Amino acid sequence: MKKQKHIDENPEVKEDCETSEATQANETTDDAAEQIVDEMELMAQKCTELNDKNLRLMAEFDNYRKRTMKERMDLLKTASEKVLVDMLPLVDDFERGLKAMETSEDVQAVKDGVDLIYSKFIAFLLQNGVKAIPTENVAFDTEFHEAITTFPAPTEDLKGKIVDCVSKGYTLNEKVIRFSKVVVGE
User: For residues 164 and 174, what is the distance between their CA atoms, to the nearest angstrom?
Assistant: First the structure.
């Protein structure tokens, strides 16, 4: 209290005190401004680092996507290679059968040879998951059959059932790859 009274009575001391307080306030403001500038620079640096990381990650992902697409395309190109290689002996059998037909006079032997090749081919299809869709005395099912026409059923029990198969259908591992084209009894 005494000190305050001394400052109030002496104008020079009062002016020095006010100047000192103003200087301290300016220094505090300058310190705060420097802190804010430092924080902004730090934030800008972090933002730059994050942008750089993001760009690198995007580039890496794009390279990964391109690489996997190329691998997938290569796989699709060569996926059927094994099946085709396994078919080559069947082609050889057909060629031998065709040569035998030109010179053979025994029709039964040629027929037996063609039946043998056919049996071999059906066994090859079964080994690779291809099965014929049954159509004989089976009810019409749109999941497996395609009706090309209807025909009056010769008997009452053939109504809604397949009367004739025009083209066989096939499944590959339980997925229809070709629908059976059939005539349905009405």
Answer: 23
